[in-house]
Amino acid sequence: MSGILSSSIARKVAMALSALFLIIFLIIHLAVNVTSLFSEDAFNQASHFMGTNPLIQFAMQPVLIFGVVFHFVMGFVLELKNRASRNVKYVKYNGAASATWMSRNMAISGGVILIFIVIHFLDFWIPELNTKYVLGDMSGYLEGTEKLRYFEELQHKFVSPLRVGAYIVAFILLGLHLAHGFQSAFQSMGFNNKYTKCVKNLGTIYSIVIPLGFIIIALFHHFNH
Amino acid sequence: MNLTLKIWRQKGPQEKGQMVEYKVTDISEHMSFLEMMDVLNESLVAKDEVPIAFDHDCREGICGMCSLHINGEPHGPDRGITTCQLHMRTFKDGDTIYIEPWRAKAFPVIKDLIVDRMAFERIQQAGGYISVNTSGNTQDANSIPISKYNADLSMDAASCIGCGACVASCKNSSAMLFVAAKVSQFALLPQGKVEAKERVLNMVAQMDIEGFGNCTNTGACEVECPKGISLENIARMNREYLKASII
Q1: Which CATH architecture has domain B3-111?
Q2: How near does any CA of chain B get to the CA of A208, in Å?
Q3: Taking 60 as the threshold, does the pLDDT of residue A24 lie above it?
Q4: In chain A, pLDDT over 70 holds for what percent of residues?
Q5: How confident is residue B133, by pLDDT bands cut at 50, 70 and 90?
Q6: Most CB contacts within 10 A, which of A52, A68, A181, B190?
Q7: Phi and psi dihedrals of B129, rounded to 5?
Q8: Mean pLDDT of B110-121
Q9: Structural contact between residues B91 and B1, judged by C-beta atoms closer than 8 angstroms
């Protein structure tokens, strides 16, 4: 690692900035998904807008992909460096005495989230790209109809109980990742003052509400298709 | 009380070490942990065996020399104390106690339980000071007004004794809390602001060169620190570093 990211603090800050970006993205993603609970039409319209708007498709989406890849690659590099910094391990190490499981296992929760994202990309994103940019079908219609396809696709994904179960596990791990990550990002950027308690509480709320939201949506469609 | 001790023995920096089991009997609960080690060493010497090497000096919690990783935690299970202040009443008769040296690539073992903490010295030499003329014409300290609030925060940071428990407890062997305390104690005072930029950049660069890991904000260092150095210092160092890097 060279240049601007050669310093340990610069790497911390880069992790924090990409994390905050992803935290904001999750809110937007959940907001779109939540519409599927109330209205098929609203979800279809929102999805169609997100899937065809040039600003989102060609400006925001590449930034998002970069953010996701950067956060994972950087996290992986940091984990390897950190492991190497203790070449002889303790025979007895009581990590739980001084730090939470979440904070000590960000690589494990992050790894599960990575597996989820790869599956998610193969499930949704790659077929989307294929339909829109390879086959050239920008209509968003279900094949042979004039009805938007997004809601149908969403429901179809949540039929299998195995898939829903795996989805829930991934989001529980995301919650654990965020439970530490949210406030950690602020600390890394040098934010630790009288508002820190508030940030920590906000992080706890966020790490429960966002994953729970996605889980509720998955369960709703599983039982209502 | 009677105890089973599992202690790391290593003849030298290049030798391979291992855990060796010892039994100690009739240990008083009023003994300090190091006194218990002294008793064990006396029994080893009486048997013509090599005593266990461990660091210690003042034995009253201010020098930062003692450095044992006891039952998986630096300075043992109690909070806000160094190993020399840990008393045997913390343990129960029949306990098995694991005693290991600090573990970090930047703190190589010299012998048994003694590690080389010169990495901390080199970080200090990179900027943990202020360049004032001390050849007899130093001005009166009280001539520069300092807010009580900042003076207290600076004093809290300066109470770091550089023992290395932060590194030992951190799952990443990060030295951030130590460096942050040393950066903060000066950054908070007008005398330290003059060289603040070079200080934080140089000390962090040296910290990275020494091979300490990256901070992931687990907070273990703050919990295990015998002097209660706060994580706020790490946030302050991050701010100082960003300010120095960008402006």
Answers
A1: Roll (3.10)
A2: 20
A3: yes
A4: 98
A5: confident
A6: A181
A7: -160, 170
A8: 98
A9: yes
Which of B71, B77, B105 lies nearest to residue A85, judging by beta carbons?
B105
Q: Residue with structure tokens 């005072």?
A: B189
* All structural domains of chain A: 3-83+104-223 (1.20.1300.10)
- A225 vs B: CB within 8 A: no
Position B38 pLDDT exceeds 90: yes
CA triplet B42, B43, B44: central angle to 5 degrees? 90
Nearest CA distance, A198 vs chain B (angstrom): 15
Going from N- to C-terminal start, the domains of chain B cover 3-111, 117-132+146-246
Q: What is the pLDDT of residue A75?
A: 95
B67-88: b or e for each residue (b if 16 or more CB lie within 10 Å)?
bbbbbbbbbbebeebbbbbbbb
Between chain A and chain B, the number of residue pairs with CB atoms below 8 A apart is 130
Q: Which of B72, B205, B239 sits opposite A97 (nearest CB)?
A: B72
Say if the Cβ atoms of B104 and A192 lie within 8 Å.
no
Beta-strand relationship, B73-74 and B69-70? antiparallel
Number of H helices, E strands in chain A: 10, 0
ipTM of the modeled complex: 0.91
pLDDT score of A124 = 85
Kindly determine whether residue B214 and residue A11, on different chains, have CB atoms separated by under 8 Å: yes
Which residue of A lies nearest to B106 if distances are taken between CA atoms? A85
Average pLDDT over every residue of A19-45: 96
Q: Do A104 and B72 touch (CB under 8 A)?
A: no
Which CATH code is given to the segment(s) B117-132+146-246?
A: 1.10.1060.10
Mean pLDDT of chain A: 92
Chain A interface, best mutation among B99, B210, B217, by max A CB count within 10 A: B217
Long-range contacts of A43-49 (CB under 8 A, 24+ apart): A43/A150, A43/A151, A43/A154, A44/A140, A44/A148, A44/A149, A44/A150, A44/A151, A45/A148, A47/A140, A47/A148, A47/A150, A47/A151, A48/A140, A48/A148, A48/A150
Instruction: Give the model's confidence band at A123: pLDDT under 50 very low, under 70 low, under 90 confident, else very high.
Output: confident
Residue A2 pLDDT class (50, 70, 90 cuts): very low
Pure H helices in A39-160: 40-52, 54-55, 61-84, 101-104, 106-120, 126-129, 150-157
Confidence of residue A4 (pLDDT cuts 50, 70, 90): low
Calculate mean pLDDT across residues B77-100: 97
pTM: 0.93
Helices and strands: H and E segment counts in chain B: 9, 7
- Mean pLDDT, chain B, as a whole number? 95
